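Put briefly, the fold is written as integer tokens. One such record reads:
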Amino acid sequence: MSAARAPKLAGVSNSSAPARTLGERYWVLLIVRAIPAAILALVITFSQDHSAALGHLGLGAFAIISGLILVLGIRMLGGLPRTLFLVQGLVSVVGGIIALATLDAGLPVLLFLVSALFGATGVLELVTGLRSRRVLSVGRDWIAVGGASMLFAIAVLFIPVDYSQAITIPDKVVPNLTATTILVGALGAYAAIVAVYLVIAGLSLKWAQHPSDVSASTNSNVGTA
């Protein structure tokens, strides 16, 4: 009697090639994804202008570059993760274009774009991670980044659009703390957290051995659950 065939699982393929791709090359994509996030965090951190226009510009550039990285990187994946990351990349690019096209639209539009864009891309990455976590160790990183994006998208909705608080420091002129300042600052903080996480995840993926990925890939095909 022949041995029972292993069940098909999402996110892996028949040979060990996809596992080697994730283990040996996919870590590079994670670190490349960290670059635009790190640049956005640095620009916002060292800029005294936390205006809505800066937020639109930073969000637009970040979303377009990040989306293109995801689209170009899907060749390292297969099955459902490949499809979901393609959709996520396209959504990110479109959202970035809209952000740049509405550069002078002000805080309400920026608030909507930040929440909508990170909410949509966060859901997509979270779903990718949840569907892949049992067979791909990198699925946990997708869950973390997707979850962080979703939480950020929800958190910014609690920023009052008309918030303004005067700050007094002796012998110093300090601008008022406004909703725009909070939103743009929060965008920079989110970008910094994601950048650091992606670098750590990429290096961990490079250095770690993934026996679960290898063993699963020898018995499974890419498929949907």
Summary: The two ends are 28 Å apart (CA to CA). Residues 168 and 174 are 7 Å apart (CA to CA). DSSP finds eight helices and two strands in the chain. Confidence is low (pLDDT under 50) at residues 1-21, 210-225.
